[in-house]
Design brief:
prenyltransferase; PGGT1B-like; mainly alpha; protein farnesyltransferase activity; repeat; Protein farnesyltransferase subunit beta; 456 residues
């Protein structure tokens, strides 16, 4: 049978169409004179700001389908503006704080809109939006006591979380709950208990992480699971070598990332997959150990499996911070945290992590990804899109810019080292603000929130 004569599948046709559109743009770019190339690679800051600010003021009726996602829209827009190094006018900030306060449920958590059901996803979006606004009024508007009660209510015996009352249980719920608790300084042993067991059960044979056990590895869930395991100090329980292998092969021919095996490129995965690489750079010692075991033919099982120890933080807990097992203390010392013989405050991990030098080189093609974002995802009139042929939207604008920031800082060993011009595709004026890769907020806004909540 001549396989070449077989009728192409819908997926194959879609892939060929996307490749054709992308390579047409790249061929055009290659044929242009130098000054025209520079213009195509320039980040259209003013147009992006106009597009974002307009959306924060008023949305047209077509956005009614996102009625239950209004905190997300606030976060996407505000975070994109912060990445551009800009601020919104005080009146708009006040409007955001007031609106999100009306989304805050009396019993804890944030809903998608006033009067709706509180939900972990919109809670994460609202908290990140308020951190991005910054300032005492914004940060103090978060009712941490009630929010903690909401998180406890969502916690399941399996260790996972539900997204809302009677809602779905998945890795996304684990991340949004743990991320919010960490940044608000309310993360404790009770919230962490058995979370790592659930996430480990979601890592697939491919190496990526699925939304739930038995499902397919996915870029968004991989980021959520990986980030959660870092925040609860159990990252050594994952097969990091397998995770690296899976995510490395998600950078496609078009230079952007796909979210799953054999799927189309999508600019939002510039962060969901690119952010995984930013995290991997800071767990290099654990990853190097795994890779060394593989190269030497040794057993790549993690430390806790080798020694028979448990990394359940609830074991041997003392007080609200808890005392880690020897395995977890070792892991934390690798991440540049407290002394390996000292008790660990779980809420310090996010701060310690970003202070840890990124000693590994970028593990993906950073300039190629920047090229895809700037040439194929950027809409010159403002905003960014999924891929050529798609419309711009606030979601892809947010995560494309987050991914662009990850790329630009991927060769900087620490926060005091600005990127070299060679690390920034296009003019150096394209440089965005640095993000905290665990939370996806601008790092300076994270520091302000960390200091504010640490004193409460």
């Amino acid at each position: 049978m001549d396989c070449s004569a077989a009728t192409p599948t819908v997926t194959q046709r879609d892939q060929w169409m996307v490749e054709h559109q992308v390579f047409q743009i790249y061929d055009l770019f290659a044929s242009l004179p130098r000054n025209a190339k520079s213009a195509m690679l320039e980040l259209q800051r003013d147009n992006h700001m106009e597009y974002l600010t307009k959306g924060l003021k008023r949305l047209d009726p077509s956005f009614s389908v996102l009625d239950a996602n209004r905190p997300w829209i606030c976060y996407w827009i505000l975070h994109a503006i912060a990445l551009l190094g800009e601020y919104v006018e005080p009146e708009l900030e006040d409007n955001v704080i007031e609106f999100l306060s009306r989304c805050q449920d009396p019993n804890g958590g944030y809903a998608g809109g006033p009067g709706q059901m509180p939900h972990l996803a919109t809670t994460y979006a609202a908290v990140n939006a308020l951190i991005t606004v910054g300032g005492e009024r914004s940060l103090s508007s978060i009712n941490r006591e009630k929010l903690y009660t909401f998180l406890q209510r969502m916690k399941q015996p399996s260790g996972a979380f539900r997204m809302h009352d009677a809602g779905e249980i998945d890795v996304r719920a684990c991340y949004t709950a743990i991320s919010v608790a960490s940044v608000l300084n309310i993360l404790d042993n009770e919230l962490v208990r058995n979370v790592g067991d659930y996430i480990v059960s979601c890592q697939t044979y491919e190496g990526g992480i699925a939304g739930e056990p038995g499902a397919e590895a996915h870029g968004g869930y991989t980021f959520c699971g990986f980030a959660t395991m870092i925040l609860i100090n159990e990252v050594n329980r994952l097969d990091l070598a397998g995770l690296l292998n899976w995510v490395a092969f998600r950078q496609s021919r078009e230079c952007g990332f796909q979210g799953r095996t054999n799927k189309l490129v999508d600019s939002c995965y510039s962060f969901w997959q690119g952010g995984v690489f930013a995290l991997l750079q800071r767990v290099h010692s654990i990853l190097d150990e795994e890779l060394g075991n593989l190269h030497s033919g040794g057993d790549c099982t993690n430390d806790s499996q080798q020694t028979g120890m448990t990394s359940d933080i609830s074991k041997g807990e003392e007080g609200s911070g808890g005392t880690l097992s020897q395995v977890d203390e070792t892991c934390h010392s690798r991440l540049g945290g407290l002394n390996a013989h000292s008790p660990l405050n779980l809420n310090s991990i996010g701060y310690s992590f970003i202070k840890q030098p990124a000693e590994e080189e970028p593990l993906f093609h950073s300039l190629a990804l920047q090229q895809y974002i700037l040439l194929c995802a950027q809409v010159m009139e403002g905003g960014l899109r999924d891929k050529p042929g798609k419309p711009r939207d606030y979601y892809h604008t947010c995560y494309s810019l987050s991914g662009l920031s990850v790329c630009q800082y991927s060769e900087s060993p620490d926060e005091d080292s600005p990127p070299l011009p060679s690390a920034v595709m296009g003019p150096y004026s394209n440089l965005l603000e640095r993000i905290h890769p665990l939370f996806n907020v601008v790092v300076e806004r994270y520091y302000e929130a960390h200091e504010f909540f640490a004193t409460l």
